[in-house]
Write a structure and sequence with these properties.
Length: 256
């Protein structure tokens, strides 16, 4: 008997549902304390949104495989929770988006050497193998200052988000609104030229490398410097609010 793609998809969803039920990650009191102390995006949410955040984080931690590399002895719970929380932060406006194409997250104890680029990396995203790679010290460094617009975790997750939207065989694809994305691309051309010419230094120079890097740098600033972002570039900020379906300024006022 031949089962078409629709039936295979339903069967796969059913199996995943059983897997999630049996092996579902449950956040502990220690995990929640970690989020309250070290993840201001979560700690500033109102109680209802915190509950939504926790539920999505548990699903992310259930579905992702965290793997130590480069001599890292083991992946700690802290690593899993904080990296998983970053995924939830960036995708919080899309309840059904879990970056499912990227099933593996590789964690290194330091910067690592790439035989492909012949240089040392802090992090990267590999769509071919469905992996996100992070240097743990660099990830922590990015979280140390929540207002400088530089955050390795957000940066790499942003790359994964942009790729996930384009992967056509993935059920999570095409979640960016086409007209909003078009508006973003129009603004990106102008902003990259401002960076290259030195006429505007709000976004760091990395954003002028190409469209992918600009997108990641914009998302870093969207979450780490939303008030300044909105004040200096309100039109672009509002485009990002529509594109990601969330406003960090509004969400961040939940506990104030």
């Amino acid at each position: 008997m031949f089962f078409g793609p629709h039936y295979l998809q339903l069967f796969g969803d059913a199996l995943r549902g059983v897997y999630d039920l049996v092996f579902h990650y449950r956040l502990t009191a220690a995990d929640l304390q970690l989020l309250e102390r070290h993840f201001p995006y979560y700690s500033n949410l109102n109680p209802r949104h915190q509950g939504e955040f926790r539920r999505k984080l548990e699903m992310v931690l259930t579905r992702k495989k965290f793997i130590s590399r480069g001599g890292l002895k083991q992946v700690s719970t802290e690593m899993k929770v904080l990296i998983g929380a970053t995924i939830v932060q960036v995708t919080f406006g899309f309840w059904k988006v879990f970056l499912s194409h990227f099933k593996k997250i590789l964690i290194y104890p330091d910067t690592y050497y790439s035989t492909i680029s012949k240089s040392y990396h802090r992090g990267e995203v590999n769509p071919r193998f469905g992996i996100i790679v992070l240097s743990w010290p660099c990830f922590v460094e990015g979280m140390a200052d929540h207002r400088d617009g530089v955050n390795l975790g957000i940066h790499e997750i942003a790359h994964a988000l942009k790729l996930e939207n384009r992967i056509q065989y993935n059920r999570e694809s095409n979640f960016f609104h086409p007209s909003v994305w078009s508006d973003f691309m129009t603004h990106s051309l102008r902003e990259k030229e401002l960076i290259r010419s030195g006429r505007d230094d709000f976004f760091r120079e990395r954003g002028a490398v190409d469209a992918d890097e600009f997108f990641a740098v914009v998302i870093e600033n969207f979450f780490e410097r939303p008030v300044e972002f909105k004040a200096k570039k309100e039109e672009l900020y509002q485009i990002m609010v529509q594109l990601l379906r969330q406003d960090p300024i509004t969400l961040g006022s939940g506990r104030t």
